[in-house]
Amino acid sequence: MPSKKDLLRKLLMGIETGDAMAAAVVDEERYIQHNPQTHEGGEGLAVLFARLSKTNPKVTFVRVFEDGDFAFAHNEYDFGGVRIAFEVFRFEGERAVEHWDNIQRISGPNASGRGMTDGATAISDLNKTEANRALARDFVETVLIGRCFDKFGDYMHEALIQHTPDIADSVSALSASMENYRYDRLHRVLAEGNFALCVCEGAKNGVHSGLYNLFRIEDGWIVENWTTVETIPPRDQWKNDNGKF
Q1: Residue 245 above 80 pLDDT?
Q2: CA angle at residue 26 from 21 to 29, to 5 degrees?
Q3: Same domain as 131, residue 71
Q4: Rounded Cα distance, 75 and 14, in Å
Q5: pLDDT-based confidence at residue 102 (cuts at 50, 70, 90)
Q6: Are 225 and 161 in contact (CB under 8 A)?
Q7: Distances (CA, A) of 141 to 112, 151, 185
Q8: Cα separation of 4 and 72, whole Å?
Q9: Distance between CA 158 and CA 168 in Å, rounded?
Q10: Could you tell me the residue range of the domain that residue 27 belongs to?
Q11: Largest CB tally within 10 Å, which of 50, 84, 173, 224?
């Protein structure tokens, strides 16, 4: 039986190949699509893949993870412009039944010279997955949503490695940037080993957005951070009724 990571890779390679069979990973009758700009079901994906394949796209898997019924990936796409994405799929057996994503045009490098996808990729500390999930959840709920910025140092050393395009390395730089960000709700925390992905809803510069943060955790500290920020379109522009989250 293929792993959920392999199934995710097979499905998303359809963007590059235009192969409608890639969408066969999806259970069309049960599939729930949370990208507001994509139609419901496998047919919607097949049409999307066919359209994107005409732009000679390139799909690069930077990091791929598995967490129970979920597989999630940190990807770079080039289809008429480079975009960075977090992709999340829920599986039942070998079929994908639900999908979320958060996609941002590539920007940077940031003031510390870091790109949106470079940095550590090795998955380790599988025995610490649940502890790291709990740490990431507590950080987001307490510091980012609760706006207790004096507690950054409880979760992060000052020498934080930062990949967000408009924020430099260090906890000080991250704290100073919070005037531009508002975190309202944590919808999900997915984790494998030393990585945890927090799926949040909030705003950047007052614009309603999906805010995805991928943290790398080492010895009980958040040591590295990657993000994507995507504006959530008005409700009347959605192509399905399932909501972003």
Answers
A1: yes
A2: 120
A3: no
A4: 14
A5: very high
A6: yes
A7: 27, 11, 8
A8: 9
A9: 12
A10: 4-106
A11: 84
Tens of pLDDT along 129-187?
999 999 999 999 999 999 999 999 999 999 999 999 999 999 999 999 999 999 999 99
Number of domains in the chain: 2
232: how many CB neighbours lie within 10 A of its CB? 18
Report the alpha-carbon distance of residue 201 to residue 229 in Å, rounded. Answer: 10
> Do residues 101 and 140 share a domain?
no
Q: Of 106, 137, 153, at which residue does a domain stop?
A: 106
CB atoms within 10 A of CB 27: 18
Tokens of 86: 């977090």
Positions of E strands within the chain? 32-33, 58-67, 70-78, 82-92, 95-105, 156-162, 181-192, 195-204, 207-218, 221-231
Buried residues in 164-178 as b, exposed as e (16+ CB within 10 A): bbbbbbbbebbbeee
Q: Whats the size of the chain, residue-wise?
A: 245
Q: Do residues 87 and 5 lie in contact, with contact meaning Cβ atoms separated by under 8 Å?
A: no
| Token pair 């025995």 in the structure block, residue | 127
- Supply the mean pLDDT for the chain: 93
